[in-house]
Amino acid sequence: MYLGIHVSSAGGIENAIKNGERYGVNSIQMMPTAPMRWSTKEIPDESIEKFLDALERSSVKKILIHGIYLTNLAREDKRLFHLGKMGLVTYLDFAERVAKGIKERKIKDAEILGVCFHPGSQKELSYEDSLERISYGMQWVLEEVKGSQKLLVEATAGTGGNLGRNFTELRLIREGVKDMDRVGFVIDTQHTFASGYDWVNNLDGVVEDMDRELGIGNVKAIHLNDSMAECGSNKDRHANLGKGKLGEKAIRSILKEPKFKNIPFLLETPALKDEKTIPAEVQKLKHLAK
């Protein structure tokens, strides 16, 4: 089973691997650059070599790259739209180069899952045009960065005009991309709960809907977060494991769902914001996964 957390890469991207090792997880989510700064510069080769050196010495196996929070591919504004695309180009290029290094060094079982990002919010365009704009932007990025690494659209809570708030929207975004084989998904349990998918009382139904609309094989990671918000509230409010509206029973059931067997579970809970509370949250995850 692959269990992990979002880790910091402050001080050097190799520190993301070291932090995963430090907290005893075999999977990590990371951002190669600052989360609230446009990233348009290529990540240096020497930084990638240090990253691979650390990976080679670690027990970390699955790595998810998370895009910066500024990206909104539904924008009509040409400058902001282009900056969003270029941020994804930088991260997808990083993913491709690390994946190539893993293959060349023959680092056993290590894998880059792809680049996860929030698709954007409907602010300036119609609903249909917004979805089309996102797909167009993704295709542009994929053509800029050739290879096999995927763009992974994250399910959102549906706050305001945020798109990707249900499995149908996620499917439509993917279907709008010509290179569909390089598009997958990241499912966030808190976001989907807030957008109306009841993991607590209808786990089988949620999984069936997901499989029918997206195909479980296209889901590359699950953000395992409890929810401070009620089901259907459309509020993006994460809670620590077992401390929210999902609760331990539902989280344990999600972890044990047979169709999720090979999908990494990654925490983004509030406990990860403090180094003192991270170890207990990781132990809670491992306990619930037993």
What can be said about this structure in brief?
The chain is an alpha/beta fold and 290 residues long. It contains 9 helices and 10 strands. An 8-stranded parallel β-barrel has the order 1-2-3-4-5-6-7-10, surrounded by 4 helices. A two-stranded antiparallel ribbon has the order 8-9.
Describe this structure in words.
It is a single chain. This protein is an alpha/beta fold and 290 residues long. The protein has one domain (3-289): Divalent-metal-dependent TIM barrel enzymes (TIM Barrel, Alpha-Beta Barrel), CATH 3.20.20.150. The chain has helices at residues 14-22, 45-56, 78-105, 127-144, 167-175, 189-194, 203-213, 247-255, 278-289, and strands at 3-6, 27-30, 62-66, 111-117, 151-154, 183-188, 219-223, 226-227, 238-239, 265-267. The strands form 2 sheets. Strands 1-2-3-4-5-6-7-10 form an 8-stranded parallel barrel, surrounded by 4 helices. Helix 2 (45-56) packs across helix 3 and helix 4 (127-144) crosses helix 5 (167-175). The longest helix is centred in the N-terminal third of the chain and has 28 residues, at 78-105. The protein starts with a strand and ends with a helix. The model has no long low-confidence stretch (mean pLDDT 97).
